[in-house]
Amino acid sequence: MTALLEVAHVSKKFGNDTKALSDVNFSVREGEFVSIIGPSGAGKSTLLRCINRMIDASSGEINFDNVNILSLNKRELKKTRTKIGMIFQHYNLVNRLTVIENTLHGRLGFKTTFAGMLGIYTEEEKQQAIKILNVLGLNEQIFKRSDQLSGGQKQRVGIARALIQNPRMLLCDEPIASLDPSSSKVIMDHLKNISVKMGITVLVNLHQVDVALKYSDTIIGINGGQVVYNGSPKNITPDDIHRIYGSEAGKLIFDMGEIHAG
Amino acid sequence: MEADEKIEKISSQTLISNSPSKRIRIRPLTKASLVLRGTLVVLVLLTAYTFYTIDVKDVNFVQGMIGTAKNVKVMFLEPHLSHFSFSHALYQVMITLGLAFLTTVFGAIIAVFLSLFAAQNLSSKRVSVVIKGFAAFIRAVPTVLWVLIFAVAAGLGSVAAVIGMTFHSISYLIKAYSESFEELDKGVIEALQASGASWWQIVFQAVIPSSISYMISWTFMRFEINFAVAVAMGAAAGAGGIGFDMFMASSFYYDIREIGAVTYFILVIAILLEVLATQIKKRLKVNI
Amino acid sequence: MIWVKSMQADIFKKKKLNTAVFILLVCFVTFIAATITEFSIAKGIASVPKAIQWSFSNFYPTKESLTKLPDILDKMKETLLISIAATTVAALLAMIFAIFGSTATRVNAFFGGICRGIATVFRNIDTAAWAMILLFSFGQSPLTGYFALFFGSFGFLTRAFVETIDEVSSSSVEALKATGASYFTIIFQSVIPSCIPQIISWVLFMVETNIRSATLVGLLAGSGIGFAFDLYYKSLNYHTASLVVIVIVVSILFIELISNYVRRVIL
């Protein structure tokens, strides 16, 4: 299978001296589940946002579906963004709107400015939104206001908003960092399902090494804006973890054996 | 839709069937959204009614706008002092600042004590309601009327201005202080009570220290407001200061260029105070 | 040296010293302020009981003054309407400036800075000062009051709206950008729905403030309820003047009641 996403020599500088990313290279196959791990401030978030150009990379090349994202003009970029769903740590919902309205926001990229401004959706889109919300177990919440939901439910609305875009790839920025363990498991299971059964590529930034090892096909370890590990979770060694997280990571590796066994 | 098939694939549960003929309402009407829309509609209707009925007394609207635009241009581009000197203006600005400062200090001192009794967690409900109601009444009377009412007893001048303006500051600060006192964690008061501390001890050791940054920010914000109020009182209630000079330039000398110069003085001080207030809030990490 | 060291170690002493310095400073500035403004604390304190005594003996409405009530109510209506109209139109303009001025939704940093700069100038010229500027072109007409309130409200509301947009909607703006939605779609689907309750709340607050300022502006511009008060006050007709004050207080408390209700429901 060919690569869906290819990141080549990407660097990002903030201001003159702060280097957030330096010469990042990796590629992702269609349908692959990839976790990006690394300490806080390593550049995970910046990297994810460079892919759909929420942040512009300073140099390099990002090919998505054989298109160089960095060379796109505004209109083409919007079109490409509709093919890439994004999920956020703090869900980023419009709290005052209902669950279904927030879900339908995923369709806005397909609409003319006028229809989008007025929020005119087709019945088909509404049916689709309800279907997706049902699949994610939110059938009770469809017409509730988003600020009445729990964190886990809000994140599922975030996923629904991304899925209704009918995307080729999902970018998930710390999707479970604000959730309790059981909600985290629900979210990760959904993401895994989306990747396996729907064939959508999933790229996740994660804090939790154990979760990353358990769910991913590939692990990308980042430290100081550089890729220091890129490979299967099966082959990862305590040394690798040490390189990703720096010297204090000793204790983090406690249950790696267990995860490998499972 | 292609996505449909994908969704079906991962779904094992039966879906709610929605007959495609029935429209799905994605934004159900709630009380909140009704009130919100109602408020908007009422505001728009009242505005339209105002424009329809306003009696402009043979003032030509367009000419007035053009005239104002011209005046504003002259004001800002050719400011000039003709009836008094630069140092006089500076001194008058100091007087206005002085009025604002006195008002703020007196207001803050009185408001601290009253707000302790207005905070529901430190006082009884009845006392709190009485003080808050009293403060709401004071706020409802415009400052200029307070000043004019005191002017009858004390004569026009700085005394009436400061006392009248202090009334408003007190009620504003009572509201601000008591709300920040009420945010204090109940557990803190309980802990100190359990250790046998008296009411005043709790106030000075827990309540005020934990709200002090909010209190400082609110007080400084009030100082900022009081400066503007002091300018207005100088113009409308004979309180003196730079506001009075502006009033004279506007109503007696008809000197738009002098108004421009005075406006620059006010603008510089007001913007300085605003920047200072923002800095204080940032330094104290207060978000109000 | 040893003394200095022990001072630094003793945090309580340092705190007390800081407090003392602060209090001394405030006293000192108070003294200077009282001197240049020729304010005497003794006279100030004495004036409060004097004013209360005077109010009880002169400042209440009589039967005779009640005949003026229809006139006063008419002026009050004019003032209320002008305050509301000025606020509503200013809010519309402020919304546009705030969208271009907020870091979450601005088109670019330069243009955003200009929008906020204009608002800063308008905000820092007080309504009363605007009234005196506008007197030149509009004379003693309700339009002077209208525009004075309009300019002051515009500056204040722009700042309030910018803060609201920054605070409430920067996260959902990011999410909608990522779906490929266009600029105006984002504004109408995310920014406005998420901010509208706060915006209404600010508008209602501004209406309340403007009714108070309108009294002052009316005094200067010779219109509305402020003019009515000035008329009776200057002709020493204190009974009727007190009736004006009562009408103002009742109106303001009434508006506050309504806006508190709306706020409670929509926020």
From TrEMBL, chain A:
One Gene Ontology molecular-function label: ATP binding
Domain ABC transporter, chain residue ranges per copy: 5-249
Keywords for this protein: ATP-binding, Cell membrane, Membrane, Nucleotide-binding, Phosphonate transport, Translocase, Transport
Keyword GTP-binding: no
Repeat listed as a keyword: no
Protein name: Phosphonate ABC transporter ATP-binding protein
Organism: Cytobacillus citreus
UniProtKB/TrEMBL annotation, chain B:
Cell compartments where the protein resides: Cell membrane
Transmembrane annotation, as ranges: 34-52, 89-119, 140-163, 199-220, 227-253, 259-277
Chief location: membrane
Signal peptide region: none
Membrane found in the keyword field: yes
One Pfam family, short name: BPD_transp_1
Keywords in alphabetical order: Cell membrane, Membrane, Transmembrane, Transmembrane helix, Transport
Classification via InterPro entries: MetI-like, MetI-like_sf
Recorded topology in the membrane: Multi-pass membrane protein
Keyword match Coiled coil: no
Chain segments annotated as coiled-coil in the UniProt record: none
Location of the ABC transmembrane type-1 domain: 93-277
Stated family: Belongs to the binding-protein-dependent transport system permease family.
Protein's name in the database: ABC transporter permease subunit
